[in-house]
Amino acid sequence: MKILMIGPFPPVVNGVTVSNDFLYHRLISKGKDVSIINTETGLIASKQGDKLSISKILAFLSIYVHIFELIGKSTVYMAIGQTFWGLAKYSPFILICKLLGIPYILHIHGGYVCKAYELMSAFKRKIFSRLLEGSQSVIALSTSLAQDLGKTFPNTNIEVVENFYDPRLIQDPIKRTFHEVPRFLFLSNLMLGKGVLEFLDALRILKDTKNISFDVALAGNIEKGIGETLKQKIDALGDSVYFFGLADFNKKKELLYWSDIFVLPTWYIMEGQPLSIIEAYVTGNAVVSTHQGGIQDISNYESFFKTEAQNPAALAATLEKVIAQLPILNSQLAATAAAAQKRFNSENFIAKIEAVLSASNGKTIWVNNAAQAKSIYTEA
Q1: Contact 183, 285 (CB under 8 A)
Q2: Distance of alpha carbon 316 from alpha carbon 307, whole angstroms
Q3: Under a CB-based contact definition with an 8 Å cutoff, are residues 21 and 58 in contact?
Q4: Half-sphere exposure of 269 (CA within 13 A, CB side)
Q5: What is the dihedral of CA 323, 329, 334, 339, to 10 degrees?
Q6: Which alpha helices (DSSP H) does 64-121 contain, by range?
Q7: What is the pLDDT along the chain (380 residues), one digit of tens a residue?
Q8: Strand, coil or helix: what is 154?
């Protein structure tokens, strides 16, 4: 079976590029015949997909020169966007697949598709649904997201494949110690939609109003246009804030074991099932986040604390609550780490993707109920 993967890949780092890169290298290591077309444009923005710009058109025109690489492929796997243009820009690849009779699989790394579909014109809906429903399978990150897709696109075969963590995170783990001064970690691209400014405002409340001391690490690329505001808010917090920029794997691992509380007050419209939350779980952090996108499906742990989006005061109150509970959370953190290490094991992720790929090539009998969003490989 010859597999072609089309979607965003590094060097830009985000959940989709990390997932695609990990999947590609694991399939290669297992002897699969896999090639890639990288569609990453390097844009980091909270409102991706809202408008079709000249720069986006030019970027994708340069990608279409690779379209003939589809010839001779058995299956095409595409990690698509979640808006009309997020899918439509893959339409030349999809049309060639249809012409050549090549099955294609669409992997949706977020929870905005159905909302975006509601906002489309009737003409765009018709195009969007035909492109989506013509796929062999659509992969969703969680049961709730798959159920939404099943209701909106009833003629689509939907598979649930949850995200994963890199097993190197728990190999030779860094020993944890108790910290008198709590340590917070924000490990994500520093974007408006990810709630980084609200997080810094909440920390200011803890410092100035509650007189609570803390250390905080920020790591990630900065969204264009918020750099100056971000710098001002960081400077206002003094020397308790450490900014690392984009962290490589070793630095990320170090930070995840350095911290006590992982914070992601996201309201990002494209949010799915953040790898960073899973990474925080398996390394023993308490997690403070919203229920944006597919997060609710991975929030059923005692060490998860829900907060409100775009509400620094509510976030500060949640952080204060977690700080107070930290001394007695050891057993909950250990239980969450053990459960998450099992549930989000990368071997589960790879096996499920392989099963979908094999099914598209006619080698596996696949049983699925799109309406109920269940698959024979879904974990209990």
Answers
A1: no
A2: 9
A3: no
A4: 14
A5: -90
A6: 84-88, 91-100, 113-118
A7: 999 999 999 988 889 999 999 999 999 999 999 999 999 877 666 665 556 667 667 777 889 999 999 999 999 999 999 999 999 999 999 999 999 999 999 999 999 999 999 999 999 999 999 999 999 999 999 999 999 999 999 999 999 999 999 999 999 999 898 899 999 999 999 999 999 999 999 999 999 999 999 999 999 999 999 999 999 999 999 999 999 999 999 999 999 999 999 999 999 999 999 999 999 999 999 999 999 999 999 999 999 999 999 999 999 999 999 999 999 999 999 999 999 999 999 999 999 999 999 997 754 333 333 333 333 233 32
A8: coil
Q: Which two tokens stand for residue 185?
A: 């970690």
- In angstroms, the Cα distances linking 191 to 195, 199, 304, 319, 368 are 7, 11, 22, 20, 37
Q: Measured between alpha carbons, how far is 218 from 235 in angstroms, rounded to an integer?
A: 13
Per CATH, the architecture of 167-343 is what?
3-Layer(aba) Sandwich (3.40)
As given in the structure block, the two tokens for residue 246 are: 């984009």
Q: Is 98 exposed, middle or buried (0-12, 13-18, 19+ CB in 10 A)?
A: middle
Check: CB of residue 183 under 8 Å from CB of residue 262: no
Tell me the CA distances in angstroms from 370 to 8, 140, 151, one per residue in order.
27, 11, 9
User: Which residue, among 288, 359, 376, 296, has the nearest Cα to 329 in the 3D structure?
Assistant: 288
Residue range(s) in the chain whose domain bears CATH number 3.40.50.2000: 2-164+345-375, 167-343
Please state, in angstroms and rounded to a whole number, the distance separating the CA atoms of residues 6 and 9: 9
User: Which tokens sit at 200?
Assistant: 């810094």
Strands 75-80 and 104-108: parallel
Instruction: List the CATH code of the domain at 2-164+345-375.
Output: 3.40.50.2000
Output the pLDDT for position 366.
Answer: 33
Identity at 340, one-letter amino acid code: A
Tokens representing 178 are 């108790």
Q: How many C-alpha atoms does 337 have within 13 Å on its Cβ side?
A: 18
Gap between the Cα atoms of 187 and 277, Å rounded:
9
**Burial tier of 290 (Cβ tally within 10 Å: 0-12, 13-18, 19+):** buried
Side chain identity at 55, as an amino acid letter?
A: S
